[in-house]
Each structure stands twice: as C-alpha cells, then as structure tokens.
Design goal:
single chain; 612 residues; alpha/beta; ABC transporter transmembrane region fold; 3 domains; 21 helices; disordered N terminus
C-alpha cells in the first residue's frame, strides 16, 4: 500500500505523490480534508445519526398517542397495540442505524489514524538532517504514536458523539411544534443557551487540552533521552536523580490532566436541562389546562424534552475528545509542516556517476551559526583516493556530507561529473554515493537484512561475498543463526569492529561510484585492519574514495591528501611531500600516529628479541 501524503508542498528530500491533497492551512481544515476523503462513510454516519434521533422521537410521540387512546371513554386498544408494535419496529430500526453509525465512525477513525500516521512518516523521511539532528526524538515519537492515536479517538468517540448528540438537539425543535406551535419556545431557548455554553466551555477547554498534549510530549522527550543514555546514567550512579526528574515530568502531565478535569466539572448544561424540563412541563400543563393539548400531548412533549438528556450527558465526553484531538492534530500538523531547504529535484539530472568531484569556493554554516567550511576548493579525478585529515572539529565530516546533499553548501558549488549536486535527482545522486561513518547504525533486523539494506534484490551469495570482502563472514558464521541472526537495536549485540565490518559489507554490496569512509576503521584492531585494508583497496579500485582518517596505513596510499584546519584547506599533496612541507600535517601525524606506531613497534621489537 502506497504512503499517503500530499504532492509537493514545499521542498523535501523525499516526496510521495498522491492524488488526494490534504489542506494544511489549519488543524480544522486538515482534519476536514481527511474526513472528506471518505465521503460515503461520512454520509453513513450522518444518516445513522439522524435516523437514530428520529427513531428516538417515535417513542414519546407514539406514547402520547397511546395515552390519548387509552384515556378515551371507550379505550381504543387497537391503537394502543399498533403504537406498541410501531415502537418496537422503530427501535429495531434504530438499533440497526446506531450499529451502522458506530461501525462507520470506527472505520473512519481507523482510516484517519492510518492516513495521518503515514502522512507524518512520509514527511519525516522528507526532512533534512538539520531537522533530524536538532528535533528531540522523544517528542517525534509522542506525536507519531499518541497524538496520531488521539485523531482516532477524536473521531471514533468525539465527533461520533458530537454528531449523534447534535441530532438529538435538532429533532425536538422541529418535533415539538407538531404537538403545539407554542411548545417550540423552550427547546429553541435551550438550544441557544446550550450552544453558548458549549462555546464558552470549548474556549476554556482548548488551552487545557493543549497543555495536556504538550506536557505529555515533554515527558516523552525526557523518557527517551534517559533510556537512550541509560549507560551514562548508570555509569554516574544517577538513577535516583533521573527517577526524581521523571517524577516531576509525570507530575506536570498529571497536573495538566487534572486542570482539564476541573474545567470539565463545570459542565453547566446539566443545570440548563433542569430549567428546560421545568419550564417545559409548566408550559405544557398550562396549554393542557386551556384545552390546547391533551394529556397525551403533555406526555409526548416531556418525552421529547428528555431527548436533550443525551447531548447533555454525552457531549461533554465528545467535546473533550474533540478538543484533545484538535490539540493533537495541531502538534502533528506542526511537525508535518516544518519545511526543509533540500529538494529531491525529481526532474533533475540522473546518470551513472563516473566519480569526478570538484569543490568551487565552497562555504557552509549550520543555520545562523559560524562558518564550518570557508572557501574550500579542490578537484578529484574518477578513481582517485583522497585522504582528509585534520584536528577534531575542523569540518572534515561536514565536507564529505556536502557530496550526497546531507547538507547543501551555503556558498560556492559542489560538482559531481561537472554537474552541481543540487541539479542531480536526490535518488540518483545518493544511490551512487555510500558513506560509512564511525558511529555505525544497524537496524534491529537480521545480519543479512542489514547488509542488503541498500540493495534489496541481493541474493544470499552476494550478501556472503560482500561479507567476505569486508572480513565479516568469519564472525557472522560463528553465530548460531548465521546470517539470520537478529543483531538488536543499533547492533548492540556486536562489537564496534563487527558493526563497522557489516557497514563495509553493506557498502561493498551496493557498489557505489563514490565511497566515503569517515573514520570507519577506528574500532578495528591492527590485525583486522590489515585484512580490511586489503578489502578497502579492492573496493576503491575503479571508484572515487574519500578517507577521513588519521591512520598512516590508509593515508600513505592516497592519491591526494587534504589537510583541513578551522574549515579551510591549509595544505594538499602526497604523504611524503606534506611531511616535508606542511607543519600542520606533521603536527597531526605526530599527534595521532606516533602513539599507534609506538604500540605497534613494541610487539615487533619483542618478537625480534625472542628470535635472537
């Protein structure tokens, strides 16, 4: 089933086309556009609600007729019997109408929840990394799960009850004059006062329900952060402090919910119903005394006024659910409507990448922060290997992420095969560029599924061949389930080196034309590195490769080394040339490689001594 979302409404990295366009100008318009997508279901609800109220009026109306028939000097038993049969028949019909209304409301609620969740998920996939790097995951999860579910509750319970109860408000206004024209006065006054009371109630309730949803989101943010950082919490023995912190967040959510309940407790329409029944009875008795209506008319009229009891008792629940749903929809819609500056450029350039890369006076900054890169220019020929070195925070990772448009340059141009990356289709560009980072992310799926993530059509032989190239086949074969082993969320069952080898296997399988290794062998021991080094050499053959590393074993064989300092390229060339000519490069080499070289030299020296 295709994801459901609107066609392009602003830029996005990923857009799912759909013939149905949701109106996102306001929460109410957005909800309405979801509802009107299923017009036949809506008609079923309206017909069921009106039929239910009409059949409910049949009971007091026929009861009044029966009263008049039995109070005659010669009781009309046939009329009473017919009224009884009609009442039974009307209630059977009413049961069917109620079932159809409730079934349609449930269906509508489930569909709206499904569509809204898919729309939200599609919009999240379409947002850039700037959004995902800065927005709290816990709040996103709260909106994607609980807030979206509130849309279901709002319709299946809230709107369903509001529509149903509104019919019970309308029927008495039009039915009462059938008994006597003057009897329309009390129902009309009650209707007006009820609408005013509900308006005032909703005006006070809306901020309270909004606070409930916001405090729930804040509580979820803290919960997600505490769970994700549980190792830090335990390492610092901060369990009690975190528990106290969560208790304060949960208390805030409870207080907001109690505040909502305080407003609901002031549901004044119960008092209005009492006034309506009292004045209605007085009015009907006065008309009876004047001979304008019979006793059956009084009974029918009072039964008709009793219909107001349903909206009075039920609509408080309905309007509360409606208010919660609107507050939730506002939060969901706000998330969907956040725009990204990146565009998938579906009609842009698409072609096999040869691997020629050129940076022309490239600058970059995050939002309104300082420049991370400044006036960066260099050119790489297809098939060349480039090593990028520099101190932590120099901008090395940011530089390579401009290639696949994880971020867009804020100045200058990045070109691949002579075409600005912004002119490429996002799919064509990214499918041919593979980035392996130090912080490897693995899904809670099997080893085989993680390796084949970027190439779903891969066969088992291809998966195993890629694992062998990445030196991962041996340890994977040692698992009880082999390639069918579920690695756990983020690959928690694996060591850092194992995760990085699986990431390398994933890259080898997709056969990218540009391969970027962002310190991807940092968690691998020297012996394994020698094996993986050969695999990287094989993988880089014929493709452009970028290495962000401080390991001499990888830097040495690079065709070009770029030395980055404070966002600028301060030196470039071969290893031997830079050792002679660049003080910045020598400092980096001394800082990162000297300890490693010393550690590697020690066992070799010991080995030499033992052989003498």
């Amino acid at each position: 089933m295709a994801l459901v979302t609107a066609p392009a409404q602003g830029a996005a990295e990923f857009i799912v086309e759909n013939s149905f366009v949701y109106d996102r100008r306001s929460p109410l318009r957005w909800i309405a556009s979801h509802i009107f997508r299923y017009k036949s279901v809506l008609v079923t609800i309206l017909v069921g609600a009106f039929g239910n109220a009409a059949c409910a009026f049949v009971v007091p109306a026929l009861t009044g007729v029966a009263f008049n028939a039995i109070l005659q000097p010669q009781p009309d038993i046939v009329t009473v019997a017919n009224c009884a049969l009609l009442i039974v028949a009307s209630q059977v019909l009413r049961a069917g109408l109620m079932f159809s209304r409730n079934f349609a409301s449930e269906m509508m609620g489930q569909r709206i929840e499904r569509d809204a969740r898919q729309e939200l998920y599609a919009s999240l996939l379409g947002k850039g990394m700037t959004f995902h790097s800065m927005y709290p995951v816990g709040d996103i999860m709260a909106r994607a799960t609980n807030d979206v579910h509130e849309l279901y509750t709002m319709f299946a319970q809230g709107i369903n009850l509001v529509i149903g109860s509104s019919m019970f408000l309308i029927i008495p206004i039009f039915a009462s004059p059938l008994i006597h024209p003057q009897l329309a006065l009390v129902p009309l006054l009650f209707f007006i006062s009820y609408v005013l009371a509900v308006r005032n109630f909703s005006r006070k309730l809306d901020p309270a329900t909004e606070k409930v949803r916001d405090t729930f989101g804040a509580m979820n943010v803290d919960l997600a952060e505490s769970i994700e950082g549980v190792e830090v919490v335990k390492g610092a023995s901060q369990e009690k402090q975190e528990l106290d912190h969560f208790y304060r967040q949960a208390t805030g959510y409870r207080d907001a919910f109690v505040g909502q309940s305080d407003i609901e407790a002031r549901w004044i329409t119960l008092l209005l119903l009492g006034f309506a029944e009292g004045f209605g009875l007085l009015h009907a008795v006065l008309l009876y005394r004047d001979g304008a209506i019979g006793l059956g008319g009084v009974v029918a009229y009072m039964g008709t006024l009793q219909m107001f009891g349903f909206p009075v008792w039920i609509s408080m629940i309905g309007f509360s659910q409606l208010s919660l749903g609107i507050a939730a929809s506002r939060r969901v819609l706000k998330l969907i409507s956040i725009q990204t500056s990146l565009d998938e450029n579906r009609n842009g350039h698409a072609a096999p990448i040869a691997g020629r890369v050129r940076f022309e006076n490239v600058s970059f900054r995050y939002a309104d922060g300082p420049e991370v890169l400044r006036d960066v220019s260099f050119e790489v020929e297809p098939g060349q290997t480039v090593a990028i070195v520099g101190q932590t925070g120099a901008g090395k990772s940011t530089l390579v992420k401009l290639l696949n448009r994880t971020y867009d340059a804020t100045g200058g141009r990045v070109l691949v095969d002579g075409v600005d990356v912004r002119d490429w289709t996002m799919e064509s560009l990214r499918s041919q560029i593979s980035i392996i980072e130090q912080d490897i992310f693995l899904f809670s799926r099997t080893v085989a599924e993680n390796i084949a993530f970027g190439y779903g059509a891969a066969t088992q032989d291809e998966i195993e061949r890629a694992a062998q190239d990445a030196q991962a086949h041996e340890f994977v074969s040692g698992f009880k389930e082999g390639y069918g082993t579920v690695v756990g969320e983020r690959g928690v069952m694996l060591s850092g080196g194992q995760r990085q080898r699986l990431a390398l296997a994933r890259a080898f399988l997709t056969d990218p034309r540009i391969l970027i290794l962002d310190d991807s062998t940092s968690a691998i021991d020297s012996a394994t590195e020698d094996q993986i080094q050969r695999a990287i050499l094989k993988a880089s053959d014929g493709r452009t490769t970028f290495l962000i590393t401080h390991r001499l074993s990888q830097i040495r064989w690079a065709d070009l080394i770029l030395v980055v300092r404070h966002g600028q390229i301060v030196a470039r060339g071969k290893h031997e040339d830079l050792l002679r000519e660049s003080e910045a490069y020598r400092n980096i080499f001394a800082t990162y490689e000297a300890p490693a070289a010393k550690n590697e030299a020690a066992p070799r020296a010991a080995e030499m001594v033992s052989t003498r």
